[in-house]
Design a protein that fits this description.
Number of strands: 27
Strand order of the largest sheet: 21-22-23-24-25-26-27
Strand content: over 45%
Number of helices: 2
Shape: elongated
Radius of gyration: 28 Å
Helix content: under 10%
């Protein structure tokens, strides 16, 4: 009776090995199957064999492999195989390659393979899902699976704030042959938002449901910047890695929005964080503002003092109301609300 087993070699190729009972368990054959891995709409993995096999070989042209996705510590793509469905595979499949790019609802992983003839080629696995921040403020990707389930790929290092207020994640890979290291840089394109006290969010591209919701200390709000401090908990470290998020920009008033903080992201139209607010005149003839969530009016724990110089256009109307005292009747109490 012949027994077969599949494995993945260092060149990302599927290899078939077989044994025959009665021959002391020695390998009878080892066959490299040139092809490539692919994922379907539910992020299930399959291997598609490129060269047609002879009719005498009982090997399908497409082999499906179900399991759970994760990332290794060196950022390789790993599938823990569901062996209750397919026992001809080992416990894990690790695909050699690099994270190529990150999108609003996907992670792109570049896989390089070498054929039996020595020809190299690279293709991309596109995993669909949503980006989230975990309990330790680390970046993680929730891979969409059937029936609302998901697998979690966690970027285990600490991230930074790069140019144009973007989130940047870097990791290194080592080449044992060339004895060199390569740095891989992933840039997450999105916009910052503040919706509740002690949290700051980074929302990915419009039309996606990806958002990093970071736990942070109380914010500092000044005339030309907003600052939050948070910690990123990493495995093997007793203390979290500190990160200070400083968003440079300008306060303004917009019709239909009210008080906003405008941030430069380097491309496309400027993005702004909108706030609810209570405001009053001070003895120094400035405006003292208590910041609130634009969603439910909850206090954000931040106060801001602005001069009259930023009031232009629509803002001048509210400024005149405050000076005349009419805002008490119009907006209730001594508050100025949007």
């Amino acid at each position: 009776m012949r027994k077969v087993r599949y494995e993945v070699d260092p060149h990302n190729r599927l290899v078939l090995t077989g044994t025959t009972e009665g021959r002391e368990g020695l390998p009878r054959f080892r066959k490299v199957l040139d092809g490539e891995f692919r994922t379907d709409g539910n992020n299930n993995l399959s291997y598609h064999i490129k060269i047609p096999l002879s009719k005498t070989e009982e090997i399908p042209s497409q082999i499906r492999i179900k399991g759970a996705w994760s990332l290794t510590d060196d950022h390789k793509l790993r599938l823990t195989v569901d062996r209750s469905l397919r026992r001809t595979f080992g416990e894990k499949i690790i695909l050699q390659g690099d994270i190529l790019d990150v999108k609003g609802n996907s992670l792109l992983f570049a896989v390089t393979t070498t054929s039996k003839k020595g020809t190299q080629s690279t293709y991309v696995l596109d995993l669909g899902g949503a980006w989230r921040a975990d309990a330790n403020n680390r970046l993680s990707f929730h891979v969409k699976r059937e029936k609302g389930a998901y697998d979690i790929l966690t970027l285990t290092g600490a991230w930074e704030i790069g140019k144009n207020n973007r989130i940047v994640y870097c990791y290194e890979t080592a080449s044992l042959i060339k004895k060199k290291t390569r740095t891989h840089t992933l840039i997450f394109k999105g916009r910052w938002d503040i919706k509740e006290e002690l949290r700051i969010s980074y929302e990915m591209s419009a039309g996606t449901d990806s958002s990093f919701d970071f736990k942070a200390s109380a914010g500092v709000f000044k005339k030309d910047y907003i600052e939050y401090e948070l910690g990123i908990g990493l495995s093997g470290r007793a203390k979290p890695v500190a990160r200070i998020i400083t968003l440079s920009g300008a306060w303004n008033f917009r019709k239909g929005c009210g008080l906003v903080f405008e941030i430069e992201y380097g491309e496309g139209p400027d993005r702004a964080i909108a706030f609810g607010a209570d405001a009053e005149l001070t003895s120094r003839d400035t405006i003292s503002i208590r910041l609130k969530s634009r969603l439910d009016g909850a206090d954000l724990g931040g106060r801001l003092e602005l001069s009259h110089k930023i009031f232009k256009g629509e803002g001048e109307v509210f400024l005149r109301l405050i000076k005349s005292g009419e805002e008490s009747a119009a907006y209730g109490g001594a508050a100025w609300r949007w």
